[in-house]
Amino acid sequence: MTTLFERLKEAAGQEWLNYTDHVFIQQMEAGTLPPEVFKEYLIQDYRFLVQFARAYALQAYKSRTMADIQIASKGLADVIHETDLHVKRLETGWGVSRQQIESTPEAWTNVAYTRFVLDAGSSGDLLDLVVAQAPCAIGYAEIGERLKPALEANPEHPYAEWIGEYSADWYQQVKVETISHIDALAARTFTEERFSELAEIFTTATRMEAQFWQTAFDLAAANA
Ligand SMILES: Cc1ncc(C[n+]2csc(CCO)c2C)c(N)n1
């Protein structure tokens, strides 16, 4: 059976590729991504993850069952784990402290993306919110899978740590769980009339994921 995620991804069309096959990913795969671009990405991503943690908390608030609260709680814990990695990387790589990260202005594209996700969840139900968060959670697993051979070919790959994290089994499992969570929620509340609205939420979030990579290049260029 086709999953709702597959239908949403198909509806996003080219936008999904613009995100998962962005120049940022191509350069990361080749190991040629400029370190300053990666640094700007990590700083903005920390700021992003703060809002994304709030979105998982909102998932808990929008839940009606303990099973859904458990899923939200695990998502929240995964985000905290990810921010800790970012802070360590920024500290060891560039001597950037958590305080410096937190006082760096949020890029407006980052504001747009995260507040869009939070609004989709505030104004909608749990399915709307999980769909708004899906490009993020599932896209990174697809990217990790794609980059894995580059890491296996070169254990000294400059982005070994990042690729290792998203290609790891635990993260591939997050993808499987998110897809089945969407289907479980859909079984309760999805009607065909909702599809176009859900597809718009999903495609918009996907477009903003692609823009997130672009913002890292723009910030690095502005600092150069
Ligand atoms: C812009 C942006 N999009 C997606 C992710 C990936 N991500 C966000 S939360 C999470 C953990 C649980 O889903 C993961 C892997 C990111 N870091 N930054």
UniProtKB/TrEMBL annotation:
Full protein name: Aminopyrimidine aminohydrolase
Described function: Catalyzes an amino-pyrimidine hydrolysis reaction at the C5' of the pyrimidine moiety of thiamine compounds, a reaction that is part of a thiamine salvage pathway.
Family indicated by similarity: Belongs to the TenA family.
Keyword Hydrolase: yes
InterPro entries hit by this protein: Haem_Oase-like_multi-hlx, Thiaminase-2/PQQC, Thiaminase_II, Thiamine_Salvage_TenA
EC number, as in UniProt: 3.5.99.2
Matches recorded under Pfam families: TENA_THI-4 (PF03070)
Domain Thiaminase-2/PQQC: 15-217
Reactions catalysed, as given in the entry: thiamine + H2O = 5-(2-hydroxyethyl)-4-methylthiazole + 4-amino-5-hydroxymethyl-2-methylpyrimidine + H(+); 4-amino-5-aminomethyl-2-methylpyrimidine + H2O = 4-amino-5-hydroxymethyl-2-methylpyrimidine + NH4(+)
Keyword Phosphoprotein set for record: no
SUPFAM superfamilies: Heme oxygenase-like (SSF48613)
Species name: Nesterenkonia rhizosphaerae
Keyword terms, alphabetized: Hydrolase, Thiamine biosynthesis
Enzyme class (EC, first level): hydrolase
UniProt pathway: Cofactor biosynthesis; thiamine diphosphate biosynthesis
Domain of life: Bacteria
